[in-house]
Design brief:
CATH superfamily: Aldolase class I
Radius of gyration: 21 Å
Low-confidence stretches: none
Number of helices: 12
Number of strands: 12
Shape: globular
CATH topology: TIM Barrel
Number of domains: 1
Largest sheet: 8 strands, parallel, barrel
CATH class: Alpha Beta
Length: about 290
């Protein structure tokens, strides 16, 4: 398969540089200043895009869930927390302007139809479907109707559920992301060999959305053919919030991007050869120059 799609000004495909999404999500902790700091870090480390989340709180969560006691910086209930973390028009307008100024792509995962329509006013080049939303038929259809690239995470999903979702979104302008929806994920939960299986089964571009500690699994995912990698990022993994522990700090992000960018040269072209730098070693170390048959 030699499929290529375009996200913003970037080409995405197996023969293209790995497209890296820095997931800011809710790690801004309700602060537009922290959000901008994280955008700057993503740019400095060489990321292709940043991603946020958007929810209509009263639609996504039940009243019972919102009223559940949960002490947090914004109040005493889970609803206080969800509303405190939710950016509105003014914040997303600033994000849109800041990313344009800094020349970096931004996208969002929208958890309900109203949120899709809200983000659409900023004309994003793609939408992310969160793992929790993969079985939401109406949301998939509503998002698909916008005509943008769909990046679909598969955490907590069976093959049958993924089959159904792919029937709705199709494989022409879709990136299917292997994902495990634990935060952080243990190594034995990552199942990276699903990546080549997804490529064969669905004939679509495949990526990896990682929640693991460290950087090695994401690098391995890229080596297995993931043409999109997404990782949560944070200023500090010890910050208050549910996603920080499964996120990369700036140094880890920089190291991961460095290694992923070197991957094509490491993999080579698959044709065995003798390199020029090996030839003096042949003269030095080989006692006999021929192979006896």
């Amino acid at each position: 398969m030699n499929k290529t799609i375009q996200i913003g000004n970037k080409l995405v495909g197996e023969d293209q540089p790995c497209f890296f999404i820095a997931e800011i999500g809710i790690n801004h902790n309700g602060s537009i200043d922290i959000a901008k700091q994280l955008i700057d870090i993503a740019i400095e480390c060489g990321c292709d895009a940043v991603k946020f989340q958007k929810r209509t709180v009263d639609v996504v969560y039940t009243q019972e869930e919102l009223e559940r006691p949960r002490p947090n910086p914004f109040g005493k209930t889970n609803g206080d927390l969800k509303r405190g973390l939710e950016f509105g028009y003014n914040e997303f307008k600033q994000i849109n302007e800041y990313c344009k100024q800094k020349n970096i792509i931004w996208i969002a995962s929208c958890w309900d139809e109203e949120s899709v329509d809200f983000i659409e006013q900023f004309n994003p080049p793609a939408y992310k479907i969160a793992s929790a939303c993969l079985t939401d038929r109406e949301l998939l259809m509503h998002t698909k109707a916008k005509g943008k690239t769909m990046i679909m995470a598969t955490g907590m999903s069976s093959l049958e559920e993924i089959d159904s979702a792919m029937e709705i979104v199709g494989n022409d302008n879709t990136v299917l992301m292997q994902c495990t929806a634990t935060y952080p994920s243990d190594n034995q939960e990552l199942n990276l060999l699903v990546i080549p299986q997804f490529k064969e089964k669905y004939k679509t571009l495949v990526g990896y959305s990682g929640h693991e500690r460290g950087i090695a699994p994401s690098f391995l995912a890229a080596s297995l053919g993931a043409c999109v990698i997404e990782r949560h990022i944070t200023l500090d993994r010890t910050m208050w919030g549910s996603d920080h522990a499964a996120s990369l700090e700036p140094l880890g992000l920089k190291k991961l991007l460095r290694d992923i960018r070197l991957l094509p040269s490491m993999l080579g072209d698959g044709n065995k050869k003798v390199y020029n730098d090996e030839k003096p070693i042949i003269e030095k170390l080989r006692r006999k120059k021929t192979v006896l048959c």
